[in-house]
Every structure is written in C-alpha cells, then in structure tokens.
C-alpha cells in the first residue's frame, strides 16, 4: 500500500467522524511530512524505530515539542485507522513520545488596550467598519474562535436574550452570553447587512456572501493599525483576552471553561498562569515591601 492510498483511507474515516476541512487538511500535511522524512517508504513498512528517527529529524530541523506532538497524534490516528480496516497489523507509533517543549502562554491584550481597540472612533464609519466593529466586539465579548465566528448565521444571535448559539469543535453547540456593547454593534450591523438571496451568514462580504476567516484576520490587523494599537492583534488574541480578563475578575475556572467550549479543564488552566502574572505585576508595582522588581521576576520566569 502506498501513501496516497493510506491518506485517502484515513481522510474517508475523518469525513465519517465529522472532522472539518481544516482539521483534515492539517492531518494530511502532518502525514505527508512523515512520508517525506522516511523517503516515501510504504507506510506499513515503518517500525517503531523509524517513527522515533522521523521525530528526531524533524526536531533537529527546528520543530518544537508542541508541533511534534500534533504530528505524532496524526500519525497514530492514521495507523489506528489502517488497523481497523485490516490494512496494517501494528501501530509503529505505540510507546513513542515527542520531546517536551517549554510552557507557552497565550498572548492576551491588557484590559485598557482591549478597550482602546474596541472603543476607537474611526475617521470614517462605513458599512464595512460597522460590520468589523460588530465582529470584533463579538470575539472579545463572547470568546469565540475564528471558525466559530465565520460559521454564525443570523438566526444564531438572540439580541432580546443577549445570547449567541455557537457551533464549536466537533460540531458541539453551546450558548454564550452576548455583552451589551456587542449586542448594540450587532444590531447596527444587522440594520445595514446586505446578502445575496438565500445567504444566511451573519457576517457577509462586499459580494453578499459568507465572510471567510482569512478576510477577518486581515480586517482585524488593519483595524489595529488604524486605531493605534502598539501590537498586531489577531482573532485568537481577542479570545485569549476574553478568557484572561474574565478569570482575573471572577476566578471561576469552570465558568470560563464552559464559555470557551473547552472539553477539558486542563486546557483552560493555562489562563491561571496569565492571571498569576497579572497579580504578580500588581504586587511588584504597588506593595512597599515587594522583594523583586517586575523585571527580576520576568528574568526568573524565563530562566526556569
């Protein structure tokens, strides 16, 4: 069996499992990398040792533990699929672990920077800027993923109850609250929204069809420049900002988990590190008996 056959088999299985196009494309890229580093040897000829060597080569090429862990998961899934279909007898990924990588915290805007970004008054207000403001308010107000934002239909928004129905990973639905300012921005956008006949998407482009994720990223990057932001702002940064700011105020990790749509609490717990950093900065700045400056604490964190 060659790699094309293996990939086609695995992709068909992913379709049956309801995996998104983006997820399937990511799996394909990771498996193609395995084929490349093993010199296109037939997939069923690879051994446990071959998998370890493949990881070592990719690690030496600059990939970190997080990327390699994702790749290994894709490879393992491929072989599990082949075994289920009687096309392979063993999974060569069994017992293989990727190298560990450093703990990476998500980037989040300070509260005042987020407010400045969203409260900025533009020199010219147009239909597009009305739409953009509604999108960015919604990302920050409800902590949506970019793909969740692009999937929204008009009927998913309940302005009266201030709720949004979101289709998350694995097509799991959840209801999230809609902030007052986001609701106001959405109401204005809905009054100006134009769409081709039959288009149900909440956010549409100039042609009246559903707006894509890449377009949203570009509009937000442009918005951050126009409003004087000192950093590049991405949709995921607004989601991280939502989570960290909410946790700073409430300390309710379970509630934040539900709002973000995380399946596991451990995924949400990374924001407790962000919250501690915020508290440490307040202490270092305000307490008269603080033993360390903020710089010294940062240096300690980086060296640990």
Automatic annotation (TrEMBL):
PROSITE patterns: CB, TYR_RECOMBINASE. The keyword Transmembrane does not apply. Residues 1-83 form the Core-binding (CB) domain. Residues 104-284 form the Tyr recombinase domain. It holds the Pfam family Phage_int_SAM_1. Keywords: Cell cycle, Cell division, Chromosome partition, Cytoplasm, DNA integration, DNA recombination, DNA-binding. InterPro entries: CB (IPR044068), DNA_brk_join_enz (IPR011010), Integrase-like_cat_sf (IPR013762), Integrase_catalytic (IPR002104), Integrase_recombinase_N (IPR010998), Integrase_SAM-like_N (IPR004107), Recomb_XerC (IPR011931), Tyrosine_recombinase_XerC/XerD (IPR023009). It is found in: Cytoplasm. The active site is at residues 145, 169, 236, 239, 262, 271. Site-specific tyrosine recombinase, which acts by catalyzing the cutting and rejoining of the recombining DNA molecules. The XerC-XerD complex is essential to convert dimers of the bacterial chromosome into monomers to permit their segregation at cell division. It also contributes to the segregational stability of plasmids. Belongs to the 'phage' integrase family. XerC subfamily. Forms a cyclic heterotetrameric complex composed of two molecules of XerC and two molecules of XerD. This is Tyrosine recombinase XerC.
